[in-house]
Specification:
Number of domains: 1
Radius of gyration: 18 Å
Strand content: 25-35%
CATH topology: Rossmann fold
Order of helices and strands: EEEHEHHEEEEEEEEH
Shape: globular
Oligomer: single chain
Number of helices: 4
CATH class: Alpha Beta
Strand order of the largest sheet: 3-2-4-5-1-8-9-12
Length: about 220
């Protein structure tokens, strides 16, 4: 009897968060070149040598970025999407809104565009990773905590609720060279992961490889029945 094909129940939406130079772009090295849509909003070469992605967008405007994102969602050949970076996209959007509008309207239309993007992201039947910078924001109890960087107050500390996985970058020096890794938990950050998505043996782990293929495989296994 043929093995029953697995059915996806949900799709993974992950944010990789950290400062420049901590390995965010490097994780794309292991992504499949033919089935991954890579949105290179940074418009910079990869920090490694490799075969180019079959689908690589290089938008320079928010409208171009959003259309690129929607096109990749609609493309049946694309199974995964990586956005590098969400921070650059937001910076471009707020700059464009500042040119087009003044005062309150600047943030009104900025917030509307970000909301539309996040709704599109949540409804997409694709596994998606966005890369983003972090910033320190004040929590409700007055402590300083790390969150995905944004503009204005509407999404201040709230972007993460649209993702089921939020990983923070980590670095260390090991065996004579830098090592990059990702943290599923870290105090005073918005890091989070579904229970037992990442395990070793029968134990849950809180540091994982800085590896897109590893994360996409985890999404597929966790959200399949």
């Amino acid at each position: 009897m043929a093995e029953t094909e697995k059915k996806r129940t949900y799709y993974g939406k992950g944010a990789i968060v950290g400062q420049s130079g901590t390995g965010k772009s490097y994780l794309s090295k292991t992504a499949d070149r033919k089935s991954t849509g890579y949105i290179n909003f940074e418009r910079k070469p990869a920090p490694y040598r490799s075969e180019p992605f079959k689908y690589e967008g290089k938008p320079s405007t928010w409208a171009g970025f959003y259309k690129n994102f929607q096109d990749y969602i609609a493309n049946p050949e694309i199974k995964y999407i990586i956005v590098d970076s969400f921070t650059m996209a937001l910076n471009t959007l707020i700059k464009e809104m500042g040119v087009k509008y003044t005062g309150y309207d600047t943030y009104k239309f900025y917030n509307r565009a970000v909301y539309d993007f996040l709704e599109t992201l949540r409804n997409a039947e694709k596994d998606i990773l966005i890369l983003a910078h972090d910033e320190l924001v004040k929590s409700d109890d007055g402590d300083k905590v790390k969150r995905i960087a944004t503009h204005g107050r509407e999404f201040d500390g709230k972007i993460e609720q649209h993702f089921n996985l939020v990983l923070y970058t980590g670095t260390r020096y090991k065996d004579g060279k830098p090592e990059y890794f990702l943290k599923t938990f870290e105090p005073n950050t918005s890091a989070k992961a579904p229970e037992n998505m990442f395990t070793k043996g029968d134990k849950e782990i809180f540091e994982i490889p800085n590896d897109a293929a590893y994360i996409f495989k985890a999404f597929d296994e966790y959200y399949s029945i």
